[in-house]
Specification:
The complex is a heterodimer of chains A (416) and B (775). By secondary structure, chain A is of the alpha+beta class. Chain A has three domains: 119 residues, Pelota, domain A (SH3 type barrels, Roll), CATH 2.30.30; 126 residues, eRF1 domain 2 (Nucleotidyltransferase, domain 5), CATH 3.30.420.60; 118 residues, 60s Ribosomal Protein L30, Chain: A, CATH 3.30.1330. Chain A is 31% helix and 26% strand. Chain A has 13 helices and 16 strands. Chain A has a seven-stranded antiparallel sheet, with helices on one face. The longest helix of chain A has 20 residues. Chain B has 33 helices and 24 strands. In chain B, the strands form five sheets. A six-stranded mixed sheet of chain B has the order 2-3-1-4-5-6, with helices on both faces. A six-stranded antiparallel barrel of chain B has the order 7-8-14-11-10-15. Classes of the chains: A alpha+beta (416), B alpha+beta (775). Chains A and B meet through helix 3, helix 8 and helix 11 of A and helix 26, strand 7, strand 18 and strand 19 of B. Chain A: This is Translation factor pelota.
Chain lengths: 416, 775
Amino acid sequence: MRLIKQTIQKKDGSGSATLLPEEPEDMWHAYNLIRANDLLRASAIRKIVKESAAGSRSVDRVHTNLTIRVTKLDFDTQASQLHVSGRVAEENKHVTLGSYHTLDLELQRNFTLEKAEGWDSVALDTLKESINQTAKAQLWAVIMQEGLANICLITEHQTILRHKVEVSLPKKRAGSSDHDKALQKFYQTTFDSLLRQIDLADPKPLLLASPGFTASSFQQYIKTQAASGANKQLHQLVPKITVAHSASAHLHSLSEVLSSSAVTSKLSDTKFARETQLMDRFFDLMRNDDARAWYGPKECEAAVERGAVGKGGGVLLISNALFRSQDINTRKRWVQLVDEVKDQGGEVRVLSSMHESGKRLEGLGEIAAILTYPIENLDEEVGDEHGGIDDLENDPDGSAVNGIEGRSEAHEDIEI
Amino acid sequence: MHRVKNIEYDDDDLYAEDEEADGEEEQAYTDEDRQNFDDLTPVVRAELNEAGLQASDREIEEALYYYYWDVVKSVVHLKNTRTSRPRQQQAKKEKAKSKFDQAAERSASKTGRSSSPPLPAAAWFDGIPWSTVPPELEGYLIPVDPPRARSKLLGGSSKLAKLAEERRKKAASSQTAQPVPDTRLSSLDRLSKPKDTKENVLPQHMKQEPKKYPIRKKRELTPPPKEPSPPPEEEPKEELPNLRASPTEFACTLSTPTSQAARASSMTLGDLFGSSTNEENTFKGPSPDDTILRAQQHSKDNAKATKQSANGIAKKTEALKLDQTPSPATPTQPKIKSKGLDVPKLWVDGKAKRKPAAAFVVIGHVDHGKSTLMGRLLLDTGAVSQRDIDKYKKQATELGKASFALAWVMDTGSEERERGVTVDIAQHHFSTNKVDFTILDAPGHRDFVPNMIGGASMADLAVLVVDANQLESGMKGQTREHILLAKACGLKRIVVAVNKLDSSSPPWEEATFKNVKDEVTKLLTATGFATEDIAFVPCSGLNGQNVVKPVPSNGETGWVASSSSTLLQELERSASGNIAEATIKASLRMQIADVFRGGITNPLSVSGRIAAGNVQVGDSVVIQPSGETAAVRGIEANSDGVEWAVASQLCTLHLTDIEPQHLRAGDVLCGASKPVPVVKSFVLQIQALESILPQGVDVHVGRLHASGSIAALITTLDTQGELLKKKPRVIKAGQRANVNVTLSDGGAPLEVGDRVILRANGSTVAAGKVERTGS
């Protein structure tokens, strides 16, 4: 994303920023930037129904710039599209004040964002991160086992499951080649699905991971296809393949794959590497029942209150899903927590809920902290109450987190 | 133009129409014409007077007009009309007058009506193109003929008409007698004469005509179509009997195809149409076969049968008849009839005769010789011939893996043979005099632990193979994990085969065996195996010492012969084959271990171990989570077809009436009456093997390998199951706890008491039983 213009006041965070999204990943950033109640100005296509005095109706589609007060966000991970619903906040000749509109943010089209309660530190960090123009790592991963393959696109901030291949393979059986045949067919299916997803003209690194030999057999299969087939572009893909080990084909095994040295050497994404490292450290501390590691909103807040997440190794790991809360007060609560940790000199890591480390954090209640000194029985002090994030916990797929909610009733819907 | 109309008036008998034209014509005489009339009429009259004939001014004028003021011609004409055919001329004159004279017209109309029935004829031809051609158009053709030609034609046409009439009479003597007097005929002919001239246009139209009136096709061409005489309605009535009569049944059967074709071509359209409608009727309703099929399909739907028309009645009855016969037969026909056996009773009755059966899973660390030991066992019990082993040996030597030859009995997969590693469970059956055994050879590699879990869940007892020389690697690796998993899968009895004692240094050293025995016993008891359920057998799989054949009681293996029995003996001793009758009477539960094509006759088969209940051929079963039903078409146990199978048996079920996509390894096949519920989340009481946090895990239930996560840590418990702490922040290794597990995609068929194993990052983190199930 490119920052075209900004008028943000350091003092109170007022002002607006004009941004130009350039690639699908930017939509993800926009999704994390735009909040309910913010003012968003973007180009829109609006259907205008005119009724003449004689009663004949004519429908015109008008390109216009609309400013809306955001009420709802809808992010489509598969298509990387962001739909922002809201009420028109600035009248123009086509649209009346207060009428509903859903803006579809488009690539290569500016949008201007003004924060309702000003730009807070988290929003500014997100903005900084999103306009970071350094080379972005992108990686395709096929994580597989016999009969199951998950094809994912791993970007700096997201891990997107693009395709799942599931084939029922007959088990080995003396005197029958059904298993081998089915296995070849499974490779074929996976390979075809993969080719549909990736852009061969500009091949990204491809990571194949599996338990046993499935991944290497599949790599061999791709090589054979490249050697025998007419598809010249496949040859460019072959040297970009890395084979790694994973415990299973399930997506949560990806964290193991991504933290393996075979992958980290290929991924230039230092941010992600650091996050994974911190998550691993946190889990290690937990396993050792070290009282320096705590997770859960109440516990972390209590720890921060005591100044335990400060200078000298204090780390707060927080998922950006928490900042996407529709409730302003909830959001403010987390922003304050983040600010406080920063004030204390601790490290704050906002993890992408769409990324592997963020997914691991999700199970812990979206927030975890590594303290500078051990606090025993922190959980007992904060009481049994685990509230505050129950709504998130109840959603293992993170669908609510991703904001995939029903579209608003189409009062005056927009043309797509 | 006027003349045309006049003549035409003669031709056409539609007086009413002509009246209009009359007025026009009167006006149409120009001044010039009148001048001519004035000049020439006296001349003509003088001429006629000379000949002693009288003529009115009008007649003269008319004649003059017709002959373009040619006096001579007019006179000749008038003379002719008056002398040769005075009567006809009279009629004509009358008609001609009618145009101009109201009185004359009335009389003419009367005569016209009485002499011929023109209107009915016109009505009859109504709708046929040539009859509706407007009179003005018809008339155009006439004026070309000069008046002299006309007189000639008059005669000619009458001859033709006579000829035609004669022919007609000859052809159809039975036809309505045409009592047309000669005079009248001729007059009629004259009237219709211009039509004759027009006839050259008509043949095309005429061709349509014969189609309606069969047989007369060719003849109809000649007679003037306007012939009023034959009342058209009668014609088909009279003709039809002729038609029907001509192709007799006999003729039909005799006639060759060509003659038939000729007949068809000579047939008029009406005939063709008639016959074709008959044919259509034959095929209008569904063919008898269709009817039968339909009747079979919708045996109750009689509505369709009633739809059939007239000659379909017979078919209807046929359909109804068929309705009744196949409908009771159809449901039973494709299905396999259940014999309704009382399986538990049969099982109890046959108990005394039956050999006990046992399935054992062979577990242990990778490369400790599990597959080779099993190959040896099978070879020495005679389940595999030496010839096969020799073949494998030859092939293995080619790959440079001669020592794997025995393992190839179990490792049938091409990848397994190439890499020398067991990947998946191999199942093999063999019998001794005392027991029927099924070997489940598990893979030892850590990546294939999920497969090992699948195998262990199907077994009655475990055979742990430990390499006497590699104890340490196993204790850290899969020897340990497999023991834990075997216990977690509910196996009670374990036989430890201390393998590769022949290659220890020195070979067959008792101390080595003792050491291994102590170490493994420690681990087993720690895991929860009772000491009386553990047996140790020193052996060598590769050479076959103390596997089936006892070792010589002298020399280095003397201690073995004296202190322990062979592996086979130990296995026979361990096989109990005891199963509670209640389990057999319970509702059917069988986890599908494999879905495969059982052969040409059995395109869809599943194999697995019946966990509870019984099944017999013809039973209807439900597959969960798909919820689809299937019929059991056949049962195989130990490669033999059987009528029924009960809990604890490993069998293959051949299924029908289900699509293969509804069957996956890990699904549960259950009795239709009480299927296993499909759950998305459940509370699991676990024994933690590693520290547990809320995290993503692989959920293993036998062959089922699903993705899930520990959503919440509920409580930690002490060994007595008493509550230690609510909502612990972490569950430490070795602790017992209740956790909430959620499955990621879809649900899994799970019941309270099912054994679940949780793995993460390639190692087993917890094992336990389902405490209660959620949604």
